[in-house]
Design goal:
The chain is of the alpha/beta class. Helix content is about 45%, strand content about 20%. The chain has an 8-stranded mixed β-sheet with strand order 6-7-8-3-9-10-12-11, with helices on both faces. Helix 5 runs parallel beside helix 7.
């Protein structure tokens, strides 16, 4: 019997919306819409999808560069980020119920007063008092719920305060190796910044740590006094990796770290990340759109489309048995170094308008252990039949 794996990162119903404009012209973009997944200690978890699907936004939300709209993020079993949209909507609903109840009670009292001339006045007054008492009880109950939600919101604000000691255990490698490095700072200043922020002032220790991580990523201690413009793209990305490593993190979010590099350099960076993962037991959230690299590097893969996670499975399983139509379309676009295959390769076009849901709404379903897909009940039956599980 295998031992349960330790979760290092957990996302629950995470939403991240951006808005622009006011009033009728206000536009809300649902960059990340209700996604949930877990990342286990020591694994490489791939997050793939086409440009604009919300991969980078998810990574930035995890490391708290963006505040969540709704949902929760846990790192090492501790709540590090939470959104208040659900609580705000619930408070609005409760307030509307109070307003509706007041109107309803006012109409009842008006009707009772209209009947007062023809009926027993004492009885009418009793009924009016009972209606008012019921209204007061209802308002008190709703206000109690609203107060509870406000306390939860206050707790959320406390949870969203950055815990530097905890968050230093999670670092990010950014996509662009040029823009992510300050051109006015030397390599030593760039790498040591994390140590200084964490309160380390010993200059000798800082210099030793900078030299250590430079050697780890394949650079020389002499490079510490140079500026970013003096390096190639691959070397700049190694500096970015060194900056992430210097605080001894347990998890690294790699946001398309090879997309801006030449193919030969891409292989070097991937091999470097693999070596560092094995050496230090790192967990990596690898964001990419190059599926060939993801297949080689990742243990598990989550496929994102239009802000949603539509499929999660082990790397080998996902490539062998893709289920969601978008996953199939994505895999059909992967070229292979085989001219004969390329001549006959057929691209699959994904058209989301063909998947119309009315009553049976889709949700994440575990088709079989470890393989999740975003589908309706009818689609789940078809997928089970396709995999010969029924």
């Amino acid at each position: 019997m295998t031992e349960p794996r330790e979760k290092i990162l957990e996302l629950k119903n995470v939403r991240l919306y951006f808005s622009s404009g006011f009033g009728k012209r206000k536009v809300v973009v649902k960059a990340v819409h209700n996604i949930s997944f877990d990342v286990y200690k020591g694994e490489v978890f791939g997050l793939v999808g086409e440009s604009g699907c919300g991969k980078t936004t998810t990574g930035r939300a995890i490391i708290k560069l963006y505040n969540l709209t709704d949902g929760q993020i846990y790192f090492k079993s501790r709540l590090i980020s939470e959104g208040n949209r659900g609580k705000n909507l619930e408070i609005k609903r409760l307030r509307k119920e109070i307003r509706d109840k007041k109107k309803e009670t006012a109409n009842v009292i008006a009707e009772l007063k209209g009947e007062g001339e023809m009926a027993n006045v004492e009885k009418i007054n009793t009924e009016i008092n009972e209606a008012k008492a019921e209204l007061n009880r209802f308002i008190a109950e709703q206000k109690q719920k609203i107060a509870h939600l406000r306390r939860l919101k206050a707790a959320t604000r406390r949870a969203n305060v950055r815990d530097s000691k905890l968050m230093s255990k999670m670092q990010m490698i950014f996509q662009d190796p040029i823009d992510s490095l300050n051109p006015r700072m030397t390599v030593k200043e760039i790498i040591s910044e994390g140590l200084i922020i964490n309160g380390i002032k010993d200059k000798e220790f800082i210099e030793q740590e900078v030299n250590r991580v430079l050697e780890l990523v394949g650079l020389l201690p002499d490079h510490a006094n140079r500026y970013p413009h003096e390096f190639s793209g691959g070397q700049r990305q190694r500096i970015g990796i060194a900056r992430a490593l210097v605080v001894n993190p347990e998890m690294i979010i790699a946001d398309e770290p090879i997309s801006a590099l030449d193919v030969s350099i891409q292989a070097q960076i991937i091999n470097l990340l693999n070596e560092l993962r094995k050496k230090f037991g790192l967990t990596i959230l690898f964001i990419a759109h190059n599926l060939s690299v993801v297949k080689f590097f990742c243990d598990r893969i989550a496929v994102m489309y239009y802000g949603r996670v539509v499929e999660i499975a082990d790397s080998e399983e996902l490539f062998k048995h893709p289920l969601h139509p978008y996953t199939k379309a994505l895999l059909s676009a992967v070229p292979l170094p085989d001219p004969d295959y390329e001549k006959t390769r057929k691209r699959i076009a994904y058209n989301p308008s063909l998947r119309k849901f009315t009553v049976d709404k889709p949700k994440m379903v575990e088709i079989y252990p470890g393989h999740f897909v975003y589908a309706s009940e009818e689609e789940v039956k078809a997928y089970r039949k396709e995999l010969k599980l029924e």
